[in-house]
Amino acid sequence: MFWKRGIPQEKERFEKRVKLVGVVMVICLVILLLRIAWLQLVEGERYFLLSKNSRLRLLPLSPTRGLILDRKGEKLAGNEARFSLAVVPSNVADLDQLINGLSKMIRLDRDAVKKKLLSAPNPFRPVSLKKNLDMSLVTFILEREEDFPGVVIVTDPIRTYPYVETGSHLLGYLGEVSQKELALSSSFGIEMGDLIGKMGIEKVYNPYLQGKKGGRQIEVDAHGRPLRTISEVDPLSGYNIYLTVDLEMQKIAEEELGKRKGAVVIGDPHTGEILALVSHPSFNPNLFSHGLSTEKWEELKNNPQDPLENRAMRGEYPPASTFKIIVAIAALETHQIGVKDTFFCPGEYRVGNRTFKCWEEYGHGRIDLEEAIIDSCDVYFYQLGLKVGVEKIAHFSSLFGLGESTGIDLLSEGQGLVPSPGWKRKNRDDSWYHGDTANLSIGQGYILTTPLQMFRVISAVANGGYLVQPYLVKRIVDIDGKVVQENSHPPKKKIRLSTSTLKFLQGSLAGVVREGTGWRARNKTVSISGKTGTAQTSDEERPHNWFLSYAPSDKPRLAAVVLVENREEDISIAAQISGRIFSRIFEKPGS
Questions:
Q1: Which CATH homologous superfamily contains domain 247-280+313-556+565-586?
Q2: Any idea where the Penicillin-binding protein transpeptidase domain is (predicted)?
Q3: DSSP assignment letter at 504
Q4: Which amino acids are annotated catalytic?
């Protein structure tokens, strides 16, 4: 009887086991189906690419970057063919071993290289690691392909600047695209490892200059070695850019400025075309094309001379006595004085509890406005500025474009500063005093201007009262020679000034060079009109020196601004530099 009672129990245990096995099998089947679904629906494309790219590789073909030329077609930025080393991450089995092997031949930052390869957005595309390879190194790598799996040698056009530092600030340089720039440039065909413009014309007009990539599809073996070419699409070269700059004028301006720290701007006062844009100290943009090390970059960036700073458009300085042009115009246009009205200069002038000096220790005596401009009398302009008032001075400053960017086709332009009582109250938490107005009247105190802004000021005097917009690009041409963009002269803005004021000022500025403070600009080649300025700085023995000018005096064809930062000479060296520049330009046949 006992064995009969045990049968149902055994049967029940057996059935439970069968059910458990069934549940486990169902679970395993569900897991398997889910995994298949995941591989098919989610990971399908990835594995398809893996299988495809295990046999095929797409090698990008870099386009030739467009040329940058001067107004006469002289090449300022060109290209040379160079070899680069790149790695296809998907072909590398042991990344550390490969990096160690490469680092024995070329200088590499191992951690940076590893991070770059691991973070590559497409593991099947070559990632550039080293540019400008020596031919002997290229031969060595190609002869030992099996020792360097995943390594490919790519032929790239490298940017070259044949005149080295000439025009470096306006041309700019190239550098490898950053993650931030890559995000902003995703629609322009730019990938990690590509070189793009980082400054100047190279940066502003990069979309035109960079061209369009091509590609070569090749079949490879199990080691990633090429077997045959499947298809090829040629790259499209970038567009060529013709600048308004005249290479010869640029060279002359740089040579005459010499090793002095400062800037020179030369242009057409009627159109705003910039013919020379000089900033010194300068730099060699070829260094960036060949791959600048972190150490060299830090050294250049932290150089106390600021060679990367474009002083012509970003440097902000007190305009000193060149600002007397604005004060004189404000006084005449608001009828505060007539051209024959006089003030007495004893060599100093008291405003409140402060005594303001004239540069002429014993004074100029009783003089009128023309004499005050010619001799740059400070005491005359202290009194004139107080009579006109800060608000009117600020108003006429804005009419001449001070306190705002000029709109030149470069980035990060300085805006300068035209102070006012409201500005001082907001930014200095202080009231405006008569002493501030006296200082402002001779271009000192809080006011700041750039050389490019002062080019507009002197151009407006030369051209009869029009505010021009400076520009650097004349036209853009495609590879077939078709003009895709022509920069006609930007519209000029008429400044409402009386003809009598302009003629008086033009005559006075001619007198500055003929018999006044700008006499060092005189030469036998061409007549020059201009205005000197000496801006006091914290280093009292080394002030900034200005000279604004145009030539010829009767029919102006060129306007120029020379700024010497912290001059070492005891003379008005900026006027002398301007005179030499104009003399050399106009003595050439056809000038």
A1: DD-peptidase/beta-lactamase superfamily (3.40.710.10)
A2: 262-582
A3: H
A4: 321
